[in-house]
Amino acid sequence: MRILLVDDEPMLLEAFRRSLRVERPGWHVALAGSGEEALAILGRASFDIVVTELLMPGLDGAALLRAVRASSPSTLRVVLSGQPRVDLMEAAEGHFHRFLAKPVDPEILVGVLEELVLDESGGLDERARRFVAGLKGLPSLPSLYARIRSLLAQEDPPLPALVALVQSDLGIASRLLKLVNSAYFSLERRVTDLGQAISMLGLETVKTVVLVRGAMEALQALKPAGLDMNALWRHSQAVATGARSIAAGEGQRPVVLEDAYSLGLLHDMGRVILALDPGADYGRIAEAPGLVAAERRLYGTDHPHVGAQLLSLWGLPQEFCRHIREHHAPTLPTAGFPAGLALYAADGFQEGAVDLFQDGRSDERILAHGDPERPGRWKTFLTTPLPE
């Protein structure tokens, strides 16, 4: 991965470069002490990510971000700033993908940069990144979710502050309480204290619940052309219920059930993003039987890759994003609960029901990998789903 760090504080730049060299020696890191120097470097080489301060003398970070977006739309753009002026934030709005507040621990910066770029699996990833990064009007998470995510990124986030933010969204709060009070925990008394629920579930679970809810809100506010959003959400809800039923039938923990349900809700979000492109007519292919192949002919990429790229930009875990990317062609399971395979089965069941489980089909061989009894069990789970 090639990264350009831009800041007028040379000691800060060197500190980040040293940390990146230690943590990720395979990454190429270049430094620029000003916006003008950054543009000169970008004129000689391409970069996957540009990380810049906003408040700099001469060419400020907002102007640099606009220039990068115009000349290299596939480059991901991150703001790393202390107390940026309101006018600079307004000038940069819509031109960056992630905002980080100074001071930030170098290890946290490394983790954020890893979140931004999925493991490359060929040209489809690159074209998906270019499409998402260059899209005008790219949906962003509501400000509440950005604030919660920023708090969760701290090494030791203060629990009272986190509880206060979560309590401001009844949907998140109720979801966390429902998870912790599920039958799996076998609690003697019901947990009603949100701080206790967060402590019991763990910060990673809280982060995923928060980001998934934010993603759903951001997507449901969009009005893409040529796509029946009501039908899409009905399908996504059915797939989510099916994936969760599989996980429940296999006796998985509530956290796994929540992940399976979230995967189902968001698995087709890439279709919404593709349909936002005004230069293409998504309606021509929206109901095509070979949808993924049709998308690749029209866009050069497809909705699984585009959806995974956007979720990665929003900070969803890499494993979660990988399952979204592979939901039409899942990785064969090795150990643990195969969440990607459950998503694949639930989606296939809604699309073709009986066909997915017919004897001799390649789909059944994928499901049966490492467990010949899995297709039969999962068909039962999907046809007679367990209660939530």
TrEMBL record:
<dbReference type="InterPro" id="IPR013976">
    <property type="entry name" value="HDOD"/>
</dbReference>
<dbReference type="InterPro" id="IPR011006">
    <property type="entry name" value="CheY-like_superfamily"/>
</dbReference>
<feature type="domain" description="HDOD">
    <location>
        <begin position="138"/>
        <end position="330"/>
    </location>
</feature>
<dbReference type="InterPro" id="IPR003607">
    <property type="entry name" value="HD/PDEase_dom"/>
</dbReference>
<dbReference type="GO" id="GO:0000160">
    <property type="term" value="P:phosphorelay signal transduction system"/>
</dbReference>
<feature type="domain" description="Response regulatory">
    <location>
        <begin position="2"/>
        <end position="117"/>
    </location>
</feature>
<dbReference type="InterPro" id="IPR001789">
    <property type="entry name" value="Sig_transdc_resp-reg_receiver"/>
</dbReference>
<dbReference type="Pfam" id="PF00072">
    <property type="entry name" value="Response_reg"/>
</dbReference>
<dbReference type="Pfam" id="PF08668">
    <property type="entry name" value="HDOD"/>
</dbReference>
<dbReference type="InterPro" id="IPR052340">
    <property type="entry name" value="RNase_Y/CdgJ"/>
</dbReference>
<protein>
    <submittedName>
        <fullName>Two-component system response regulator</fullName>
    </submittedName>
</protein>
